[in-house]
Design goal:
By secondary structure, the protein is mainly alpha-helical. It folds into two domains: 34 residues; 29 residues. The chain is built from two helices and no strands. The chain is rod-shaped. The chain starts with 11 loop residues before the first helix and ends in a 13-residue tail after the last helix. Belongs to the TRIQK family. This is Triple QxxK/R motif-containing protein. Pfam families: TRIQK (PF15168). It is found in: Endoplasmic reticulum membrane.
Length: 86
């Protein structure tokens, strides 16, 4: 039927394709590395959105403290009382 060594013999076209594939991989390897580094830097960098959220949280916290102390320390002045009366 078929020879055992027939499956192990590679066609010249397959060898050529394999060689071209290796050459393309060698060409694109630095490009892939640069793309990977760029994506890594983008992932770890602090963005404007995060900075804005942190500033908004700090501002809200300060506003809450201010409102709390303003309401606690403000004295109610009764207009019917004279300044020398308690």
């Amino acid at each position: 039927m078929g020879r055992k060594d027939a499956s192990t013999v590679k066609l010249p076209v397959d060898q050529y394709r394999k060689q071209i594939g290796k050459q393309d991989y060698k060409k694109t390897k630095p490009i892939l590395r640069a793309t990977k580094l760029k994506a890594e830097a983008k992932k770890t960098a602090i963005g404007i959105k995060e900075v804005g959220l942190v500033l908004a949280a700090i501002l809200a916290l300060l506003l809450a403290f201010y409102a709390f102390f303003y309401l606690r320390l403000s004295t109610d002045v009764d207009p019917d009382l004279k300044p020398d009366e308690d």
